[in-house]
Amino acid sequence: MQISAKSRWAFGLLGAAAVFLVLVYVLPAVSASPKEASGSGKCVQPQKKLVDSGENPSGDPWTITATIRENGSCGSWLFGSRFVPSGTARGSFAFEWGIPAGGHLSDRFTIGARDEMASSGRVFGGTVSGRVTRIVARMSSGEPLTIRPKLPAQKLRDKFVWLRNVRYAMRFYPAGSHATKVTLYSADGKVVEQLGSQEGEFIGPGV
Question: What is the pTM of this model?
Fold first, then answer.
């Protein structure tokens, strides 16, 4: 059967229209991930980074890891810190805070920490603001315990914005007493925050 020139012209128009639809609508929809389709540009894949590690007095390995993931949408991230004092999930603890997408903990943040038993002694582990260079814990025995939180490695802070404005601490000490109050100090010796323990936790107001 022969096709008239008019029919060939009509089929040609239909073919061109189909190609246009594929290029403009179908391919972008297939290639774009759900996050890209949201239009935020601030989406983040879940990540986990080791920020510090060592060996506790009993010879068990300890680790501090930081995590990041979306906080319900691409417009907000959930930043977390996980502390494993004795090498196993048992006795570990974690904290999470919402932060702006593409950002880090704000200057309002002060501390998220816990004091509890670990192996044959006790441990004070936590996250503090980047401006906090010294923690003085008042112990139940009445004695002070000085803790020096550390910044993540420079290469981590340079590469991951969410690891800025934060320090970490993992301090082991003998059993027999426990932290009841903490005072946070900046590098110039000024008090940043004072707060007491709530069932072993020290959580500053707001982030």
Answer: 0.78
